[in-house]
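Task: sequence design from structure.
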């Protein structure tokens, strides 16, 4: 049987280990975690609007649509839901969170590069429209920071 003092000590160790993981994240990542948690709730509203047949605008990484039931619209909703799940995982300090966030950063970079470099050449329209995706200015540092903290994240015992 565990004595009450020992149980409290174990709980304090768990809580301090958990809080140390979150301290590895810089303020700007925490800021975007909260933004994408809010977008996760918006995805639920978006799915409801989709079921009701209401159109609304969606945009992420240069992909955009006003028809959420289209392939692009559903893909964007899935991306937002994925980002919300990753944000929740980072905020609750899950062991897999940083690895999954790195996958998210790589996926975001790949989509941005596709939108910048391939889609302009195959899209129909009034001519070639090349553009630089500003998201890359955040995705690349995000990826680098996550790569730097992944070993520390793994070493800290937590969820």
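Answer:
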């Amino acid at each position: 049987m565990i004595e009450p003092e020992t149980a409290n000590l174990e709980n304090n160790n768990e809580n301090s280990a958990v809080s140390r993981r979150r301290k590895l994240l810089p303020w700007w990542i925490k800021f975007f975690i909260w933004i994408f948690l809010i977008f996760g709730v918006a995805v639920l509203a978006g799915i409801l609007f989709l079921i009701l047949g209401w159109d609304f605008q969606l945009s992420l990484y240069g992909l955009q649509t006003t028809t959420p039931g289209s392939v692009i619209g559903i893909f964007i909703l899935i991306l937002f839901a994925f980002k919300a799940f990753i944000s929740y995982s980072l905020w609750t300090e899950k062991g897999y969170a940083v690895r999954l966030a790195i996958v998210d950063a790589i996926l975001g970079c790949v989509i941005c590069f596709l939108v910048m470099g391939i889609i302009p050449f195959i899209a129909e329209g009034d001519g070639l429209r090349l553009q630089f995706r500003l998201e890359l200015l955040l995705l690349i540092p995000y990826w680098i920071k996550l790569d730097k903290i992944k070993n520390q994240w793994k070493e800290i015992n937590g969820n």
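The chain has one domain: 25-155.
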